[in-house]
From TrEMBL:
Source species taxonomy: Bacteria, Pseudomonadati, Pseudomonadota, Gammaproteobacteria, Chromatiales
Start-end of DNA-binding region: 44-63
Stretches assigned to the HTH tetR-type domain: 21-81
PANTHER family: HTH-TYPE TRANSCRIPTIONAL REGULATOR RUTR, TRANSCRIPTIONAL REGULATORY PROTEIN
Molecular function terms, GO-annotated: DNA-binding transcription factor activity; transcription cis-regulatory region binding
Coiled-coil segments on the chain, per record: none
Keywords: DNA-binding, Transcription, Transcription regulation
Protein name: TetR family transcriptional regulator
Amino acid sequence: MSSSEKTSSSSRPRKRGRPAHLSREQIVEAALRLLREAPDKALTMQALARELNAAPMSLYTHIRNREDLMKAIAEDVLSNVQVEVADHWRDTVANWARALRVRFLQYPFVAALLQDGIATPAAWLTVSNPLLQALKQAGFSAEELADTQRWISRVVTGSVLMELVLPKVVPEELIGVRRALDALPPESQATWLEILPALGQRNDEEVFEYTLARTLDAVETLRQSRPGG
């Protein structure tokens, strides 16, 4: 757990007076606190300054701009992803994917940041190392290793982003889905009506595990298709 996550409400900046010293670490801690408490609200420098009881311009002594702040937060979040390395490459890759999903669900913007290619924090290279080493253990090398690592990374981050933005389909909401189908032409409704009973049967974690398992199966097929695989 990072030092920022250990910060409790009791250690919040006091609202009377301004802090004698403001550091980059304090700013990142405050930003993470705001993201945890109000993940649906946009993080602005003004809101961050209020949280720190500081003047907005004072933040720029330590943070160049909002993009610099986002990179610093991403570094903090990613640097604390713990991945259990297993004996078999497939188990390590699965552990990596699950650990990353948990972290991304805690801080959704980090997944979006990486997916958009806005920044590649140094911590991302560190957190990706167990994945890279597991794939190397599986026998991939050079270009194959780069492509497979990129493929799995995008599947994981993309799956989490879809999990965050798509509406949850639970049994009690299927009535709304049926109503939405009324807007489709009859020929387009048939397949949807066929799968409708199954839509609410899996929760997000089960869907993620299904996606992960099928991805690992595909990686294994690719591995076996290589000469000497």
